[in-house]
């Protein structure tokens, strides 16, 4: 079996009967396509290229000794390939994307238009600063908005995404501790945290100590105080947390951390829930990263691009990394090296070669200016409203680990409602694919058994949410009615059926290999 045929509905051994009985394998306009290596010719190309003039290769032992063996395609074949791939992709532009803790919100096309303006889209990081004053001014404006929304003192724009922002904030904390001449080496991390939190702390040499969570997933100040010591450097706390709840004791936790001489790092992945509603600086936070590609609508997914600026309190402002934007008497200035530093500025170094993700900066500012302060606040309010609307629509048929409690921007269910049905969280999620929905976040946070974390964001209309709720209610009813095979066979209508995921993880096929001739295979 070639790699692309695994999981086809017509494969031998697939559960149930085939839902495809056409000669081509196509179903209407859903085209079944072989790999390009299988359909392309390896001896031709769709482009006419002149023979290269004689030259002396400089690759030495690295020079290729065999043909590159790429398939040659005509232009229509290449175009059809990518169009067909796009038709198999699920995106926020095609339907509700309920991934919890990811904020998959609509990206207004105005953002894309602005980002493609010549003065932003065509600039290069190696240009002289004198030729990009407008870009520097936009960076300063972005920083001003972020500082105002969070109530913080300074901002580092250079981190490329959330985990990179976490690294930036924790490196600033480590630099501040070193500047005090202390050797604190412990970071407290709640057990409900994003996995990147303990990974980031460990990466830069801290020891991670887990803070136990209450049954509802929130952090008890008493549990934090019990772990405090002169060795504690910081706590990394997500607020709202990954259970979709606001940490109601955050001010008390911050006060205890500061009294112990430590710092408070806040994971800002869920900032979309509180923009315009709460300023983290007033809650006692010392550093927080902000995912521009979540909260401010820039494209999310596919590995990037992202942007994770970090805002700092007065306690850490001096340690923001290079490069950073300073507002001087003559306007914004991009400070790129230590020679340009002023008294009191103590950057811990630099994390990137240049300034960060300029395209994401432009899109975020476009979103901020088009919404205004009141619009950003309403977006947060609507995100929380939509999540609670989903909660209210499903609470009588799906179980909540925190009880019937108002959530923030995402609602968390567990798998207790499936007890005795023979259906698992994974089965339920696969059945959602057949209904045309990308599954919600599954099995996270880890503190909840069979977790199903749903974040509709503010982008969805009431009609969209009503259909989503009705679909999940229908699936719950079918599971409780004993229709187990429907779930175990799912997805039945996707281009690929369910694979043996354990086998796929342990023995993945990462490279296409030309099939052996039948005579050789028989031998």
From TrEMBL:
Compositionally biased intervals (Polar residues): 15-24
Keyword Oxidoreductase: yes
Domain spans labelled Glycine dehydrogenase C-terminal: 379-476
Enzyme class: oxidoreductase
Annotated organism of origin: Kaistia soli DSM 19436
Residue ranges of the region described as Disordered: 1-24, 498-523
One GO cellular component term: glycine cleavage complex
Name of this chain's protein: glycine dehydrogenase (aminomethyl-transferring)
GO biological process, one term: glycine decarboxylation via glycine cleavage system
Signal peptide span: none
Presence of keyword S-adenosyl-L-methionine: no
Domain Aminotransferase class V: 181-301
Reactions it catalyzes: N(6)-[(R)-lipoyl]-L-lysyl-[glycine-cleavage complex H protein] + glycine + H(+) = N(6)-[(R)-S(8)-aminomethyldihydrolipoyl]-L-lysyl-[glycine-cleavage complex H protein] + CO2
Assigned keywords, A-Z: Oxidoreductase, Pyridoxal phosphate
PANTHER family: GLYCINE DEHYDROGENASE (DECARBOXYLATING), MITOCHONDRIAL, GLYCINE DEHYDROGENASE, DECARBOXYLATING
Basic and acidic residues bias locations: 498-514
Superkingdom of origin: Bacteria
EC numbers on record: 1.4.4.2
Function noted in UniProt: The glycine cleavage system catalyzes the degradation of glycine. The P protein binds the alpha-amino group of glycine through its pyridoxal phosphate cofactor; CO(2) is released and the remaining methylamine moiety is then transferred to the lipoamide cofactor of the H protein.
GO molecular-function terms, A-Z: glycine binding; glycine dehydrogenase (decarboxylating) activity; pyridoxal phosphate binding
């Amino acid at each position: 079996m070639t790699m692309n045929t695994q999981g086809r509905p017509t494969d031998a051994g697939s559960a149930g009967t085939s839902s495809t009985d056409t000669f081509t394998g196509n179903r209407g306009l859903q085209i079944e396509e072989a790999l390009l290596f299988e359909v392309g010719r390896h001896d031709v190309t769709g482009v006419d290229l002149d023979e290269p003039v004689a030259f002396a290769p400089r690759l030495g032992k690295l020079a290729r000794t065999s043909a590159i063996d790429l398939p040659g395609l005509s232009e229509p074949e290449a175009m059809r390939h990518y169009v067909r791939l796009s038709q198999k992709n699920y995106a926020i532009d095609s339907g509700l994307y309920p991934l919890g803790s990811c904020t998959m919100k609509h990206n207004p096309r105005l953002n894309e238009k602005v980002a493609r303006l010549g003065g932003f889209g065509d600039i290069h990081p190696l240009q002289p600063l004198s030729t990009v004053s407008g870009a520097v001014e936009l960076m300063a404006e972005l920083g001003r908005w972020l500082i105002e929304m969070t109530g913080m003192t300074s901002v580092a724009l250079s981190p490329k995404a959330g985990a990179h922002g976490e690294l930036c904030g924790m490196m600033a904390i480590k630099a501040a501790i070193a500047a005090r001449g202390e050797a604190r080496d412990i970071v407290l991390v709640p057990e409900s945290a994003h996995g990147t939190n303990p990974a980031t702390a460990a990466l830069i040499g801290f020891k991670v100590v887990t803070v136990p969570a209450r049954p509802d997933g929130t952090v008890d100040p008493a549990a934090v105080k019990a772990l405090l010591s002169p060795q504690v450097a910081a706590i990394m706390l997500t607020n709202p947390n990954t259970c979709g709840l606001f940490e109601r004791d955050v001010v008390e936790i911050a006060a205890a951390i500061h009294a112990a001489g430590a710092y408070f790092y806040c994971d800002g992945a869920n900032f979309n829930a509180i923009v315009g509603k709460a300023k983290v600086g007033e809650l006692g936070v010392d550093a927080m990263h902000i995912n521009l590609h979540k909260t401010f609508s820039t494209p999310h997914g596919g590995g990037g691009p992202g942007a994770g600026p970090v805002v700092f309190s007065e306690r850490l402002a001096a340690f923001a990394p290079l490069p950073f934007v300073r507002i001087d008497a003559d306007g914004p200035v991009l400070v790129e090296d230590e020679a340009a530093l002023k008294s009191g500025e103590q950057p811990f170094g630099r994390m990137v070669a240049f300034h960060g993700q300029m395209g994401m900066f432009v899109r975020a500012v476009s979103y901020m200016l088009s919404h205004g302060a009141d619009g950003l606040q309403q977006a947060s309010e609507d995100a929380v409203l939509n999540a609670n609307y989903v909660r209210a629509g499903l609470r009588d048929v799906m179980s909540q680990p925190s009880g019937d409690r108002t959530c923030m921007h995402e609602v968390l269910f567990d798998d207790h409602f499936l007890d005795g049905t023979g259906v698992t969280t994974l089965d339920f999620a696969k059945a959602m694919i057949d209904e045309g929905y990308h599954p919600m976040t599954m099995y996270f946070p880890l503190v909840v058994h069979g977790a199903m974390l749903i974040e509709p964001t503010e982008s969805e209309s009431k009609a969209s949410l009503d259909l989503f709720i009705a679909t999940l209610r229908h699936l719950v009813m079918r599971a409780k009615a004993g229709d187990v095979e429907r779930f175990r066979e799912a997805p039945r209508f996707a281009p690929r059926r369910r694979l043996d995921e354990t086998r796929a993880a342990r023995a993945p096929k990462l490279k296409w290999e030309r099939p052996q001739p039948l005579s050789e295979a028989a031998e």
